[in-house]
Amino acid sequence: MLRIHQSELEAIRRHGEETYPHECCGVLLGRIEGDERLVGVAVRAGNTREDSPRNRYEIDPRDLVRIQRQAREQGLDIVGFYHSHPDHPARWSRTDLEEAHWYGCSYVITSVERGRAAVTHSFALAGSGEEDKHFVEERLEVVATPSFAPAGPRGN
Amino acid sequence: MKIHIPTPLRQYADKQDAVEVRGETVGEALANLTTEYADLRRQLFTEEGKLRAFVNVYLNDEDIRYLSKENTPVKEGDSLSIVPSIAGGC
Q1: Does B24 touch chain A (CB under 8 A)?
Q2: Residue A63 and residue A45: Cα distance in Å, rounded?
Q3: What global pTM score does this model have?
């Protein structure tokens, strides 16, 4: 299960609307407690796939290094990632699975239809490695009160 | 030196988020890491012993691909970050 505060979910969806018709992407920072991932803050990242931004995204590893350092300073972990599917269902694609390597993390996908955020789903990347990785849809629990409130910028 | 272990690989490093290893180069440090935590080897390297394409290794803030790769020398106070790629699309 992925638990996320209403404000962070809205920030993710708004990001998808702002970048439409291109895919947006970002990092979810928080804590892992057993089988639950708790999101403290969603950090925006840039999409380096300038060659095909309408249907591809990639986060610059340099941004991940920076965001990971930010997370450590706040006592948080990377618990997942988000991206949008412009005019496409909020379900993982074969490309999403092929390019997914953060086992045990959540991949949140928002469909953005004609510029408006529609559905948001979350998928846990199950398995222990490349040979057995697979997505499992997980419950996305939206909470009104944050479990914790780390300080820090959302990113670009 | 310290090697930061990303979330998906901590299960292979006794659940640690960072490991201290010795080494004069990036390659030595990674070899010592996978000697101590053998299950990490196949997650990081191909059967031919090359770093998997989706595994990015940063020495401080520099991608080792743009330095001297595994031959990049390291010094006290340096840190390595293992960062699997994030990509996808509809």
Answers
A1: no
A2: 7
A3: 0.93
